Amino acid sequence: MSRILIIEDNLEIRENLEELLELEGYQVETAADGQYGIEAANAHWPDLIICDISMPRKDGYQVFEALSASIAERQTPFIFLTASAQESDLARGRVSGATAYLTKPYQPDEFLQYLASLL
Amino acid sequence: MNTNLEQFRDALFLEATIGMVVVDHTGNILLANPFCERMFGYKPGELDGLEIESLIPQKYRNTHHNHRSSFQNAPTRREMGTGLKLLGLRKDESTFPVQISLSHTEIGQVRYSIAYVSDDSKRQELLAAMDQSKSSLDRAQRMASIGSFVADVDTGQELWSAQLCEIFDLPARDSSFPGDFAYQYLHPEDREGVRIRFQQICIDQKSTQSNVRIISPEGKLKHVILKREYIKSNDGTSDKIAGLVRDITELVEARNFSDDVSHIIEESLNEIYIIDAASKQLLLVNKGARRKLGYTLQEMKSMQHLKILLNYDEQKYDSFLSRVDTQQQVVFDAKHLRKDGSSYPVEIHLQKSRLGLRPAYIAIALDITERVEYEQALLKHADTLEKRIFERTKELAKSEASLKQALSKERELSELKSRFVSMASHEFRTPLTAILSSANLIGKYEKENQQDKRIKHLNRIESSVRNLNIILNDFLSLEKLETGKIKAKYTQVDIFQLVNHIIDELQATCKPGQHIEHIHEGNQLLFSDEFLLNNMLINLLSNAIKYSPNDGKIIVRSNITDSLLHLSVQDFGIGIPEEDQKHIFTTFFRATNVGAEQGTGLGITIVKRYLDLLGGELTFKSKQDHGTTFTMSIPLARN
């Protein structure tokens, strides 16, 4: 089964997402900020990464930057999931090189379908 | 006797000092005497048989030929070529002036012409010399504007020089006039005097001199000096009167002009001073100046020019003079000091000049009292104008400043609003995400034994909604505050009760193990706005809970002094990093160490605005990782 890494600082959102994915049968790892996220990915490379943007220590863009070589090499889907939904945020996200830039709140079933299509 | 006579006749011919030449009817020379031969440079007998035209320059020969023929036909005794300058041609081809007279004779019915030729060179030279001296005299007379005449005492006839004619504007040549000719051209007032003096001189024979005015044929007035001298004849001819006439019109006019100028200067209303360049004393001062200053001419002569200049020392005065030396003219304003000690403003034009041979300065002063008064009025006007402009500018600057302030306030507000929207968008999305996913998960836990999961997510939804409500309230409060909709409403408040009530209310939001203590001192009752106190305390306590760890203690202190209510909230949480402390009152600012804790960055701003409404102050003490204390100090309202 595919392994998914969730990098998200908000406890409720992280836990809920983790629960949703596990119920779908995915193997899930979580990290509570950007720095942990980079370490977790490097320690055990996932099949897909879901990453928040506004986080302590390292933000989502820094995480993507740090992991971009491996992401490119392994063709790993990288999804931003963020509450930053201003027009300027979206514009930045579109050019970031990530697979998708999705805004909160997300619709759980649609989100799960999308993940399934990527894996 | 006959022989003797013939000898004499030969002698007459041979020894004559006039050239004689006999020409036959064909124009050939029959006979020339030795004087003639010598005159023309020929040897004895050499002329005999030559054509007479040999003795005439080539270019006159044809004409002579014709004259000779007509003379042959009708011979008379006469001078040849009267009024013409006749020229003879020598053997060596040089020419010389000759005088010739002609006669004729007939011998045996043959007509012979006889010419008497004399060399005219000497006489011509003399005439030329006379001409020259005459023209020099004319030139001299012309240059000196002096004409001359000679009058015959007996006949009165006068002989005028060319220059004299010119003085009278008559055609300039030596002319002879009858004695009373000149009178018509004399000024009527002067005629009689001239006539009387003429008669006088004829009697007493003494020289006279007089000034006479001439009115020329063109009506021009001329001034002349007439000098006459009696010349007694010693050769039996009549006595003469020699006269010299000198044209002094220019001199007289110049003198008249200078008199006029002097008069104009003297009478000028401007003050005119002539100053000796060496001594700087006044040499001349016109009437205008004397009248203005109140001095007499006597008093002003030899006075130092500097003495009439108010507030001028020698150094300043000399500097103007030296400027005149380099700049031709200097114009400056000064004050003239009157004899009576009063003064008036003048504009002085100072320039270099001469009085005779003496270097001098001319100062012309114009009274500028009116101008100065006008200028001062103008200045005063300009001054008030300037003041008014200054005041207007100040007012304008003030209104501009308030406009700017309003504008910057407006801009601040608009920026705040845009950040507000951005923050609201972000802050609302987070709890909504939790709610949406929890709700979805509840739907997935269908089994009986999954009740705990369902409850967990229901609680999560509940807390997210509460969180949403707090955020919403924050935004609404701020919006109301910014638009001035919130006003303090004073009622009696029991602070002890109020604090305890809030603590009870917030207990539910505390993290595991956290507890809130309340310490109160002093009075419990005060006049204040209960709603504002309530909100401020909730804000500070929510922060304390949020930024304290599990099991953390929070202390609320309330105490009422004579004039103030102190209300403080102390936690032992993460604290505020030192470098963040200066930004803590900035709207939307959140410390760098807040981690994943949700927040709008509005709490402290709202507390501060509420305190403003109550006239209170907010202070804090904080150390990172040790905790923070916020203290509100609120003045007690008098009932």
Question: TL;DR of this structure?
Answer:
The complex is a heterodimer of chains A (119) and B (639). By secondary structure, chain A is of the alpha/beta class. Chain A is 48% helix and 19% strand.
Supply database-style keywords.
heterodimer; A: 119 residues; alpha/beta; Rossmann fold; 5-stranded parallel sheet; 5 helices; B: 639 residues; alpha+beta; Beta-Lactamase; 5 domains; 6-stranded antiparallel sheet; 15 helices; 43% helix; 26% strand
Can you put this structure into words, describing what you see?
The complex is a heterodimer of chains A (119) and B (639). The longest helix of chain A has 15 residues, at 60-74. Chain A has a single domain, classed as Response regulator (Rossmann fold, 3-Layer(aba) Sandwich). In chain A, 48% of the residues lie in helices and 19% in strands. Chain A starts with a strand and ends with a helix. Chain A has helices at residues 11-23, 34-43, 60-74, 87-94, 108-118, and strands spanning 3-7, 27-31, 48-51, 78-82, 100-103. By secondary structure, chain A is an alpha/beta fold. In chain A, strands 2-1-3-4-5 form a five-stranded parallel sheet, sandwiched between helices. In chain B, the strands form five sheets. In chain B, strands 1, 2, 3, 4, 5 and 6 form a six-stranded antiparallel sheet that branches. The longest helix of chain B is centred in the middle third of the chain and has 76 residues, at 369-444. Chain B folds into five domains: 2-119, Beta-Lactamase (2-Layer Sandwich), CATH 3.30.450.20; 125-253, PAS domain (Beta-Lactamase); 268-367, PAS domain (Beta-Lactamase, 2-Layer Sandwich), CATH 3.30.450.20; 370-476, Helix Hairpins, CATH 1.10.287; 486-635, Histidine kinase-like ATPase, C-terminal domain (Heat Shock Protein 90), CATH 3.30.565. The N and C termini of chain B lie far apart (193 Å). Chain B has 639 residues and is an alpha+beta fold. Helix content of chain B is 43%, strand content 26%. Chain B is elongated. Chain B has helices spanning 2-15, 34-39, 61-73, 121-144, 162-167, 188-204, 249-267, 287-293, 297-300, 314-327, 369-444, 451-482, 495-506, 530-546, 603-614; strands spanning 19-23, 29-32, 78-79, 86-89, 95-107, 110-119, 146-152, 158-160, 175-177, 208-215, 221-231, 240-247, 271-276, 282-285, 329-337, 343-355, 358-367, 491-494, 515-522, 525-528, 553-560, 564-571, 617-623, 627-635. In chain B, helix 11 packs antiparallel against helix 12, helix 12 (451-482) crosses helix 15 (603-614) and helix 13 packs across helix 14 (530-546). The A-B interface holds A 9-13, 16-17, 19-20, 23, 32-33, 54-56, 83-86, 103-109 and B 422, 425-427, 429-430, 432-438, 440-441, 444, 457, 460, 464, 594-596, 598.
